[in-house]
Amino acid sequence: MKPDVALPPSDTTAKRPRGRPRKTVDERDDGNRRQELLLSAAKLFRRKGFAAATTRDIATAAGMQSGSPFYHFKSKDALLYAVMEEGMRSALDRLLAATQMPGYASQPAAAQLRVLVTVHFDVLLGPGSDFVPVMLYEARSLPPRQHKTLGQLIAEYEALWLPVLNALHASGELRAPVRLARLLILGALNWSVQWFDAKKGASLQELSDAAMDLFLRPCGTDQELRSNFARSSSN
Questions:
Q1: Contact, 99 vs 164, CB < 8 A?
Q2: What CA–CA distances, in Å, run from 78 to 40, 73, 74, 182, 213?
Q3: Nearest to residue 164, comparing CAs of 108, 103, 220, 100?
Q4: pLDDT for 40
Q5: Could you tell me the pTM of the whole model?
Q6: What pLDDT digit, counting tens, does each position of 190-209 carry?
Q7: Within 160-221, where are the H helices?
Q8: Contact 39/128 with Cβ under 8 angstroms?
Q9: What does each C-alpha distance from 8 to 5, 11, 13 come to in angstroms?
């Protein structure tokens, strides 16, 4: 007879997998979860302010565990910068797309300015528009290095306005120096995030129309404008 051979005991304990640990749900859906986190952070930073909005608040709004934001961003400061960078890159992409639409280049400069103004209002006040307003009012919380990177994106964005403003200045429709006009126009548009209320009935198109009436001088000589004003006053 063959001697009995002892069989090794069966191992019902789960073996530790080799290689990298299995990813969590958040990790497997990294891109989408990161975007949800940015959207939630932008909304809370805008409504509550950077200092008052906690990472727990942001995680809850994004439907995450309280520690999950730190898988995507190392700190709340890093999340703030990501919100601002996302906002400026998206705004730049949208303005570039508008200036490359068929027919844009052949339009009069005033019509081109209307396009730029309308896109800018949509960036500030349209759906999902919390990103750039956060940058406008929370940029002081960033370190100098990140200010520099954002400054480069802002410069690229503002550069798209200069050819239009130069053309309007040359035609006499824009009387202020272009450098100051750019600052004043964008400053006025940006301030709308403080007072605009869609519930009061004004549309973004109506805002654009009012801005155009405010910024541009009607074509015609000073004498023609004075004569028109005199006639309207006498009536």
A1: no
A2: 14, 6, 6, 30, 41
A3: 108
A4: 93
A5: 0.76
A6: 999 999 988 877 888 899 99
A7: 162-171, 178-195, 204-215
A8: yes
A9: 9, 9, 14
